[in-house]
Amino acid sequence: MKSEYLAQCPPVLRSYLGYMETIKGRSAQTMNEYFIDLRTFFRFLKQKRGLVPSSLEFEEISILDIDIDLLRTVTLNDAYEFMNFIKDERDNGAKTRARKTTALRMFFRYLTDLQHLLEVNPLQNLETPKTKKALPKYLSLEQSETLLESVDGSFAERDYCMLTLLLNCGLRRAELAGLNLTDIGQDHTLRVRGKGNKERMLYLNDACWNALQAYLKVRPTEGVDAKNKNALFLSRIKQRISLQGVHFVVKGYLAKVPGAEQLSTHKLRHTAATLMYQHGHVDIRVLQEVLGHENLGTTEIYTHLSGEQIREAAAANPLAGKTPKRKKKTTE
Fold it and tell me: What is the pTM of this model?
């Protein structure tokens, strides 16, 4: 567990975060979100119970004294009042409130079912706020080709390889930055470490393999220290490329593609998934494995249909060409 959490964690929260990190294998980013979400709830709870001076700023409320006795007093109504608080006072959108709802449910389930510190889970029936399921933004096939064709400069082989892997394999930014030389198999496979350090094996198509080979021929070896010698993608200063470094590289090339200037690195993951599903006709469960999604429901967002596909479906209806028969006029 990160040291910065320890100084702010009461024992009951430290135990939970330790469980999520070591047993469930949650990523550092996820752990940070759990900590912040639960800290916000604990602060709200202390304020609501009158356990802190009303003049004390919300962000200054310590949660070190949170214990199981206080948590036994939590009710479902407390949780819903908390949801109203973060919506009205902290401007949290539906997606953020949904995440906090999940964090609360998981924490109280841990206290009840795993640690048996609570006889009854007070938040067992806590409902998740509805969120608007917007279709993911992505590049068209033509925009994707333009993106690849725009690569130039001193790091062209590296940049082209990065973009090719993002567009063909649907990698997350952290997954790309975390790749090592030893992750590349001679059988054209790539080992990827995803969320929660879960590994998956991807098979590289010719475009990816050729781009990798071209980059490896020019990848620096001199002046790379022991810490970074196994990193696949190196920065200008010959260190493992950072998440911010990937962001700047990709954004620079997206700026050259008409209509893609506002998109982010993550949208290339959406693009890869959409292209595989719409143009490659990849089965949704296979796509789930490629993307490393734990739940199929996460992958199903990529089953959205393009306007052209909808038009084709309408035209394929056997009644599409049906016209009304004209009745013969009768004479009196």
Answer: 0.61
